[in-house]
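Narrative of activities, Objective 1.

The group set out to show that a structural description can be obtained from nothing but a protein's sequence at a throughput compatible with the screening campaign. Below is one input-output pair from the validation batch, recorded exactly as produced.
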Amino acid sequence: MKRLLRILFIVFLILDLTFSFVQHYQKSLDGDMAPIILGYPEVMHDPFGINVILHQDVYGGTNRFFAHWTLSQYFKSTPLLLQNFTNPIDSIYLSCALAKTFIQVIIILTLAFLISGAKSFKDFNFLLSAVLITSIFQTNGYNGYMGIINASITYSFFYSFWIAMTLLFLMVIRQGLFKNDWDNISARRSHYTDWNVCYRFACMVQ
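Output recorded for this entry:
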């Protein structure tokens, strides 16, 4: 029975992520993209905002160098690669969809590993956790109220991307610092009931 459920979970996740990709692809571009991709000179040349402190300079984004830099570098390279397969306009929309879907996948995987304590993508509790988490991601509909991946690609890079990177970092730290505990959780996972995973997921959401 669990083998069948694993297959169903995997199929569901693939279909849901594919549908999310299509939805991300259809989102409009935002007005902040062009100036940030081209690069604000003040931000790009002063990553830590030292001039604001020393010389009382005034400009926006003084504490957002890495967000600006990541967005700028991504869109200066990815669309050019995609233009080998599609036209320049579509390459921008594809780049947005790929970035948002990648961020979504990272958040789902890291949270599923942290919730289940699993060490394998094939673990039943890991797949169950991933399926439960997927329902949180609202690309349309309730995105304005509970969306994790922002409709704006700029804000996705500014917030969602760094949430994903922080979760990934914490997962690595969690596994490194508490390896024995992690191994004990994994060793006992066969004794977990599916309701335990659901309960832990519910606690995380609250």
